[in-house]
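Pasting as-is:
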Amino acid sequence: MANKMATSEQEEHYPSGWHRTFYTMWLGSFITGAGYSMTMPFISLFINELGNFSRFQLNIYSGLAFAATFISQAIVSPLWGNLADRKGRKLMCMRAAGVMAITIFCVGLAQNVWMIIGLRFLQGAFSGYINNATALMAGETPRSHSGWVMSAMATAGVAGNLVGPLLGGILSGAFGYRIPFFITGGLMFLNFVGTSFLAKEHFKPIKKEKMKPLRQIFQELDNPGVIIAMFFTTMVVISSSMSITPIISLYVKSLMHNQGNVALVAGIVAATPGLGTLIAASKVGHTMDRIGPKVVLRTGLMVAFVLFIPMTFTHSAWSLAFWRFLLGLANAALNPAIQTVLTLDVPAEAFGRIFSVNQSFQAVGAVMGSLIGSVISGLFSYPMVFAVTGLTLLINMVVILLVLRPRRQRG
């Protein structure tokens, strides 16, 4: 009874309209995830149509187009985070959606590869919709629902990433590679309009001179090492995902001995983790609200590490799909748990900067993961990528256990 009263008193500080903002931010994040994944798989094929490139040139240009967004994102995100804490996260979502609408649409008009790379770099510099939408909801959501909302926000991008490639494949097959960019640009414009008029943020602007430096905020935290560990974990989790992505289709092709519908099976294998995450996210979110995000995070890392062991030794594409589906169930606990820890352990006035720094680590992890997957598979073998990725998750789990131990002992 006392707990219910405390929860009720806590939720009185939050306006009843936070649900509409949540649905708007979720849909906006879904559109952003779908738009990104709708266009990315076809970048290399689109580039190939713009000139007579050798295989080496095509790989280099495709890699540059892929990495450009993450490189600029890693550099600029902390600057946007600082502005978000002074001006509000809704404004940052509008900025990201508006600029992405323009840049993605213009990619569809590109006449050479350098236009694509330049626009992708610009897109990364102004990106951050999902990150800022998550930070906005962290400030608008009652603490008793933080785990559930953070899990739901994580599923938005995942669901978009599942739908995007299918929709992009249908559109590009029927109308050409430029059409998905035009449609994505239009969807991001609708996202901009929806965010502008439907989302509400109860934010009090902070003058620059009154805003605490991030270093001071870290000094005032009970355990700043936890926040640093969350940044590191974000990088490792994203890296573990991206290390597999570039080689999935090639690995499936080798497992099937180039027999059968390789593209279809590779698509299924690539999609299974997202499906697992969608299925588990709601349950994980409610569990997180009950037992705490740090317990969920430790468990998720341990399960993910264990699942990479059979993936390293599998000899069947369908068994690989099965183990990756289970990995998706474990992944449902990782990013939402990280974001919930950041939400609960960091003062609201620093949400924008903290979540933007976290986004920089996401971008670094994406670049690192792609490089790890490409280099290791080239020098050794495809299974070795799974082995190395599992090892990084094991190291990460040990780090988390060491960092969280002092905190648990105090409580």
